[in-house]
Amino acid sequence: MHKDPVGDAIAEAAPEILAGKATKPFAQMAVLAVLAGMFIGFGSIAALVAQSNMADAGAVQLLSGVAFSVGLMLVMVVGTELFTGNTLMVLPVATGELAAGRMLGAWTVVWLGNLVGSLLLAGLFFAAGGLTDGVGEAAVSLADGKLEKSALTVFCSGILANILVCLAVWMAMAAPTIPAKILVILGPVTIFVAAGLEHSIANMSILPLGWLADTSAPPNLAGAVTNLVFSTLGNIAGGAALALAITFGHGTLGKSEADRTPS
Length: 263
Description:
mainly alpha; Glycerol uptake facilitator protein; globular
């Protein structure tokens, strides 16, 4: 039988790694989730800065993607808890190494922690005077564009966004060095940002930054809730489908932990 040493190794190790993340104490998980929300927010800010200082639309989108990828690099290298990456926890539930209730608890803690971190960073950036020199205009434009999308569009976009994000996370789990982690993250994240896809945690900082940059109208809270709900659901679907498809393709989905661990 043909073997893929790298791909097989990631598929073998992933369930145990992801189950371990889910069983971390909730207090520690929450702190790391707040940090991850802030880190992704830094990526959002970097993307907005890129958009505010370039004229060519195609170059803007690509540079924004490169800039935003710094956020996921921080998350993966520092080892914080990001909801979209944690959608991969569906895998250890499917292999029986993690209880579904624990997964849902971990998702809830991390999603809320990411929200707190995102809002905190947006507020600090606003207070620091960061929404000037075209950055505020870029924030308003990006936020408005997200709120104009239908629920179905956001859901489908969320699926695609998190397939790409989870590909970056999946490869980074196996990368042995920090430069290798950075390299494997760069491509998928650049694609998802350049394509304008919906990442629920990124939107937690982008939407409030847009509102803070334009106080002439009240925040569209109903639109924000719709966006976050359907982007979150799409992100879950994309991450879960990717994890199950990869491990099925590598023949490890039906194996128990004992079967996957060499004697």
